[in-house]
Amino acid sequence: MPILHIKALPQKDSSKIEGALKKACLAIADCYGCKPEHVWATWEELRTDWYVEGGLSVEVQPQKTHPPIVTLTCFEGGSSAKVEELLLLTSRALSEELGIDDNIFITYHEAKSGEVAAGNKIIKLH
């Protein structure tokens, strides 16, 4: 059930977005140990004048500033090492496919058992 959500400026080559999402989903599924169809990813484009770094706004995704802001949500229970692995492989997959070096900001969030609803049911681990 990993969910990847990305908010980013317009990309220089928007045709790379779909490939980046797919590569990240497959990498997450492999590491997390779930089927690829259980990993969801969304992309939200930010207005250029609504994303500033310090006092600087830009028109398209730069190489070194204004990183895409990424949230990865997974069920609770992952070890620190697993969380770190998921963060790094997701960051690499996105930055490589988008062609923006190491310019990704990503945070990990845990969904707690009993605090998630899907299909009109509360989802609990075991």
Structure overview:
With 126 residues, this protein is an alpha/beta fold. It has one domain: 2-Layer Sandwich (Macrophage Migration Inhibitory Factor). Helices cover 29% and strands 25% of the residues. The strands form two sheets. The protein has a four-stranded mixed beta sheet, with helices on one face. A two-stranded antiparallel ribbon has the order 5-6. A hairpin with a 2-residue loop joins strand 5 (116-118) and strand 6. Helix 1 packs antiparallel against helix 2. The radius of gyration is 15 Å and the shape is elongated. The two termini are 14 Å apart. The model has no long low-confidence stretch (mean pLDDT 95).
Record the SSE blueprint.
Layout: E1 3-8, H1 16-32, E2 40-45, E3 69-75, H2 80-98, E4 105-111, E5 116-118, E6 121-123
Parallel strand pairs: 1-2, 3-4
Antiparallel strand pairs: 1-3, 5-6
Helix pairs in contact: 1-2
